[in-house]
């Protein structure tokens, strides 16, 4: 067996072993009960082993916050490290197989193989960042409707806790899941201000954080919660409209490349095709 084929086989087997190891459940019953009490603890579970030592406490804390923002509550930083290693090893194996299949070790193909390896290592992080971005956008879109609903319900004489509970049945998506977790925290004895701030810390969405800070400050200072909700709701809608207008203003610039790629060749064909046809006929 050639050494390259043997190396690719070993790398593939090692990647499969790491993938199986990453999927093995390692949480105890105590950790599961703690996770039911506070969902934020799921991403901070203490895990031993070699992979846990590859990142320090600061990196683990940052990765935990990003996992919570993405809604990946069952994934720990150690799992992400293992996934990165597995994906990277898979990228190495794919690059080696590509170079072996082509049979060319020139600079071009070696650079292509290096790109495959880099893509393999970066794939888990890219997926996590996209999950965070998509979740924050979903929360941003739903937030004005939630605040309007809370304003109307509280004006009708319902308490804020009752309004939050009623809003759970009327909305969907990540914001609904976060509200369910917040209400669970409140029912388990956590203060409403702490539960709301914990939700803002998990989601890490600026508009949601601003709204929650305004609500918490109004409660602590004895302000009119209905007035605060109306102002926060109007501000959230204005921000969403400003973002929509900003995206609309970017469309002409973004349309330049599709137009140049698809419309210009068609125009060139329409203009010069008759000329070419007459030239061919005259010969």
Question: What would you say about this model in short?
Answer:
With 283 residues, this protein is mostly helical.
Written account of the structure:
The protein is an all-alpha fold. The chain folds into two domains: 3-134, no CATH class; 137-239, Receptor-associated Protein. The protein has helices spanning 3-23, 29-37, 57-70, 77-102, 107-155, 160-168, 174-187, 192-203, 206-221, 225-282.
Percent of residues in helices: over 70%
Overall 3D form: flat
- Mean pLDDT metric: 79
Gyration radius over CA: 27 Å
Distance between the termini: 61 Å
Report the sheet with the most strands, covering strand number, pairing sense and barrel closure: none
Question: Which residue ranges are poorly predicted, with pLDDT under 50 across at least 5 consecutive positions?
Answer: 23-34, 37-48
Please provide the ordered H/E string of secondary-structure elements.
Answer: HHHHHHHHHH
Total of domains: 2
Broad structural category: mainly alpha
Q: How much β-strand is present in the residues?
A: under 5%
**Number of DSSP strand runs:** 0
Number of helices in the DSSP assignment:
10
